[in-house]
Amino acid sequence: MKVVYVAGPYTAPTVWEIECNVRRAEEAGLYVVECGAMPIIPHTNTRFFHGLKTPEFWYEGALELLKRSDAILLIPGWESSRGAVNERQWALDNDLEVFHLGKDHRQFEKWAAA
User: Which pTM value belongs to this model?
Assistant: First the structure.
């Protein structure tokens, strides 16, 4: 089974906006499941851990999850996320499959099913 890392914005000015970001990532994760792959959704691992560690700790940990994935799926708004921008670049630099939710859906679905 292929493992797909879901990347997109997490941090936001309010707790509600953070929760909305988490929910969008969960929706993308459900799409990954429907395509036959297993999602890694870092947003859901830490949704209630605000202030427990530095942002660098979370970025480093998320990168470890990405390293163990077969592909990255970028959700809309990823360009505004420091973490997602860095994760995308790492994926490109390390020949990981890179997909954009909504733009590459046919290619993603074919790849996930193969």
Answer: 0.94
Candidates 63, 68, 61, 71; CA nearest to 95 is: 71
Q: What percent of the chain has pLDDT over 90?
A: 80
Q: Which two tokens stand for residue 113?
A: 């099913």
Contact 112, 36 (CB under 8 A): yes
Tell me which residue has tokens 């209630």.
48
Q: d(Cα 41, Cα 85) in Å, to the nearest integer?
A: 16
Answer yes or no: are the C-beta atoms of 47 and 98 closer than 8 Å.
Answer: no
Question: Which domains are present in the chain?
Answer: 3-113 (3.40.50.10400)
pLDDT (tens digit per residue) in 26-55: 999 999 999 999 999 999 987 788 778 888
